[in-house]
Write a structure and sequence with these properties.
about 220 residues, mainly alpha, Serine Threonine Protein Phosphatase 5, Tetratricopeptide repeat
Length: about 220
């Protein structure tokens, strides 16, 4: 009569082993040219509230301070060193990804050895770690847009919209992009959704009005 209990225990044990192996494999995944996701502290998912509450405070207190976020100075060493630590621990940390994007756009140096050598590496690690994180896609799209890499930016905006079609932030930012590449109809569609749902900044609306005015004048 004890056999069913033994079998149930064996099945549970096997399931736990498989899950543990899968989690370790996911964390150990190698991102081509950008290292493995395994880290001495982490990786942790910024999108998981319980995980964030448990681990984030230590990382932000010692490595992602306001000075680091604003790129003014490092906390434990250099700015790039603290951003690197933060994004190794939390690959999809939105504040740190935004900071690494600004750091790169401002021409900040990346270490030649011993770390990742471009902002793109941090974004690829974040996407590999959490492919369905729409915020990562949005920040990456904004970064690529500012670098004038329009095809790559479009892919990220489209994916962000697919993952979170009702996000007013994503609709607004994607609207700015589509307006910039000359797709006025798509920009107006995205702007309408954003403003109908309470987006506060008038920038996209104003740019669309200017574009429509220029289009009307060109027809005259």
């Amino acid at each position: 009569m004890a056999f069913p209990s033994v079998l149930r225990f064996a099945a549970i044990f096997l399931a736990v082993c498989v899950m543990s192996t899968w989690v370790h494999s996911a964390h150990s995944q190698e991102v081509p040219g950008c290292g493995a996701l395994d880290n001495a502290y982490g990786p942790f998912d910024y999108g998981d509230t319980a995980v964030r509450n448990k681990y984030l405070a230590v990382v932000e207190a010692y490595h992602f301070t306001p000075e680091v976020s604003s790129l003014r100075s490092g906390r434990s060493g250099t700015v790039i060193g603290d951003l690197d630590y933060t994004l190794r621990a939390f690959p999809n940390h939105p504040g740190a990804l935004s900071a690494i994007a600004r750091y790169s756009l401002q021409g900040g140096p990346f270490p030649a050895v011993g770390s990742f050598r471009s902002a793109e590496c941090y974004f690829m690690r974040a996407i590999t770690y959490r492919p369905a994180d729409e915020v990562v896609r949005l920040i990456y799209g904004n970064y690529l847009f500012k670098r004038q890499l329009r095809d790559e930016a479009r892919r990220q905006y489209e994916e962000a919209l697919r993952l979170a079609p009702t996000s007013v932030e994503i609709n607004y930012n994607a609207g700015l992009f589509f307006l910039d590449i000359g797709d006025l109809a798509r920009a107006k569609e995205l702007a309408k959704f954003a403003y109908d749902n309470g987006y506060p900044l008038p920038g996209l609306k104003n740019k669309i009005q200017i574009a429509e005015s220029a289009k009307t004048k060109a027809k005259q």
